[in-house]
Automatic annotation (TrEMBL):
Keywords carried by this UniProt record: Carbohydrate metabolism, Glycosidase, Hydrolase, Polysaccharide degradation, Signal
Signal peptide positions on this chain: 1-17
Gene Ontology MF terms in the entry: hydrolase activity
InterPro entries (alphabetical): FN3_dom, FN3_sf, Ig-like_fold, RTP_Phos/Ushers
SUPFAM superfamilies: Fibronectin type III
Name of the protein in question: Hydrolase
Organism from which the protein derives: Streptomyces anatolicus
Superkingdom of origin organism: Bacteria
Domain Fibronectin type-III: 35-122, 132-219, 227-322
Comp. bias intervals (Basic and acidic residues): 125-142
Region Disordered, annotated ranges: 105-145
Keyword Membrane appears in the UniProt entry: no
Amino acid sequence: MTTPLALLAALSAAALGGCGWSGQDDRQDTRPPAAPRGLTVEAGSATTAHVMWNQATDDTEVTGYEVYRDAKKVKEVPGGKHMVDITGLKPSTTYAFTVRARDAEGNVSPDSRRLSVTTPAATAADREPPSRPARLRGEAEGSRSAMLTWGKSSDNRGVASYEIYQGASKIHSVGGGQTATLVTGLRPGTDYTFTVKARDAADNFSPASPEVRLTTAAGKESGRKTAPTGFRAATHRADGAYYIDLTWTPPRTGGAVTEYQIQLDGRTATSLVFGGTAPRDKAEHSFYIGRKAGERHQVRIRPRLPDGTWGAYSPERTVTTG
């Protein structure tokens, strides 16, 4: 009787040990996704806003996004989408938007950066749509982006925005005063068809512009056409301290570039955000670097493009204090 009892005890212990090991393998995911980056917000009309962001990262998978207006959740979007139109807004009103990512376990990311937009004034009993945008042109900018330009539409009350479509899908929205935009995130060696519609403050849409077809370049490239050009760096001394002085020409994006990321000695040093009117032809910035002479530094910058993605870095420049 001793041997069978001992064997039974051993088998029971092994079974319990196996259950314990299996439980460790099924640990619940408690790590939230990263906060969505690249948030952009554009007023589409007196009662709508177009919100876009970049895909968030997670250790498993992002399954959805939550869009907040003034801290109130107003929309849930599937994980495969990165834009949404928010409707039901009030004319001549300022709203602030943020976005959070959510994974399959319900873990929610921190808020994206917060952006505000003001809707245009309402137009009474306006049922007249804007005219059709004319002369749509497209030019591939390397293998992953394209520049679109079009003729200005007319409207009895004014154009509030232009909506850009890739095939039948809306991919971007720009303000009514802008008649060009850079489209990014394309694939190398691929054919694309784009159209543009004008939209007024009363949510009347124009007919679609004539189609423009283009093919992106084959193969890999660095995206250099989205980088600032003419980038220069120097130093100066003031009040016993040294500063790095930067000058550059913003990339051609169809609109103003309002934000840049500055990388110093291989690490992100700071973000530069232009308030008011951002420079279009020549930009400059100076920042504190220290008080020690003879120090050598490498510096470069990259722009945040109108669709919220980062453009390519400028060439790296080397400066020495003193």
